[in-house]
């Protein structure tokens, strides 16, 4: 996959329609770009660490990201339907 900008890779990573597929593929480029965006948006090291921990929970589909409700919503909503999946950072 070639996504040339960090923001594109973060958009790919946080798209629930992609992440809740059975064959999701998050290679190094996707994770590196996502972490770069988080690093730029986070104002403090604590915010960065909290966001990175939340990314892991999202990736593993645990906590609020697991279960039938989230999977069902990911299948039904359009890409703009999810505005925040628990990793929103205040601008």
From TrEMBL:
Entry protein name: Uncharacterized protein
Taxonomic source organism: Colocasia esculenta
Source species taxonomy: Eukaryota, Viridiplantae, Streptophyta, Embryophyta, Tracheophyta
